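Below sits the subject:

***
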Amino acid sequence: MTTQAAADSLEFNTLYRSPYFLGRGDTGAATADNHEAIFYNPAGLALGKGIYKETVLISPSLQVSSQTKDLVRQALVESENNAEALQGFAGKNVHLGINNFTGIVFRRFAIGGLASADTNVMLGKDADQNGLETLHADAAVNRVATLSAAEAFFGDTLLFGSTVKYILRNEAMINVSAADADNIADKLNADDAKQER
């Protein structure tokens, strides 16, 4: 696996991506509030008035890269799934991610649980394999418990916040030459995944 392929795929392997912030270029950490503050900027929990902010029962979101959309259209709609057609995706990360947060958020305090999963597939030339085309695939599944606290000082001009996370993560990763990629789904099975805490 090349360093660039690893960097491009790991960019997507975050615990939580807010649809609200993704629609704004994944920016806005300084203005994060409610449950987004838990993952983007926990100090934002100290903003506002009163005690209660929100309860989130389910909040599923799905993220796909533009390459994923193009690949699905090409393979399913246009029925072009031969090797030559797939060469157009070389060097482009095909990403699929899903997450769901459940929790309760108060001013200055929040507790919740998150389930998320990410899958990345990239075809590229591998310097470690004499420049041969290699298919890199990785997948991660996370189960996360979160506890956040925040406090404001000097009339809300100085904010401090922190989030403690307990993470159970299963990961699988594989690099195969493009010639051997026919059975990649069989090789990326649950038995090969390692669990981290």
Q: What stands out?
A: Helices lie at 3-10, 19-22, 36-40, 66-77, 83-86, 184-187. Residues 1-10 have pLDDT under 50 and may be disordered. The CA atoms of residues 9 and 131 lie 19 Å apart. The longest strand covers residues 132-153.
